[in-house]
Amino acid sequence: MDVYEAVTHYYEHYRGEKQIIGKSHEGRNLYAMLIGDGAHCVGISQYAIHAREWITALLAIEHIRRGVRCGGVWVLPLMNPDGALLVQKGIGSVSPEWREYLIGLNGSEDFSLWKANAGGVDLNLNFPARWGQGRGNRFSPAPHGCVGRKPLSARESRALALFTQAVSPQYTVSWHTKGEEIYWRFHQPLSRAKRDKQIAKVLSRTTGYPLKNTPFSAGGYKDWCVETLKIPAFTVEVGSDELCHPLGFEALPDILEKNAEALVALNGVMESVQTGNQ
What pLDDT shows up at residue 276? Predict the structure, then answer.
């Protein structure tokens, strides 16, 4: 069973509140499932926006199974299903009319290091947060680094942005691989930076991952949430940096051990912040 089949199967059998928030470049569903009751604190936790980081979708399923102790979180397990299947199953996973084009972009039929969606856009560079100003940004389709024609030009990033605006979350967290570190800064003023760092420290204590700055970041979902929505937003890089992309099933036990309770802890501290107990 590939990762899209696994997430689809889980979604179809999930008994809680759920919805399809949009479609991918190839027309696959983008799923969202709500854990908790949504009271007081509503967050968004999104996974596998980079193709070769598909293993985080299985972390999402574990987070859904564990739930949260207070408030609620929308979990979006697989934001780049087309790209994930390119990595897992190769060029046969995309429509025939795209195959020759994508092989040309990639330079080979080995898509194991592909990060983009099926249109060659890096979805985590396609948000309107200093778009196109990041280190190594590209402006034409590529296996990685392409910011897209304009902000939110990709179906997947646009669906995520619209869903986020509709939910109006109090925080967001994005799960990536690899490096075992947490990013939380994006040009916040000092008052918000102090708030966000204190919350990030909870993630750090729970996972054991250090906090890091990303001075050359731009156009990311976390960046957009911080700069435009002015909410705490975090990127968690799971998996040891000693491992090679793409991280596979062999990396999952360690990822789960270190991150299984992270969403519970994060939602708990956000509930405390909202109720004035922090």
Answer: 54
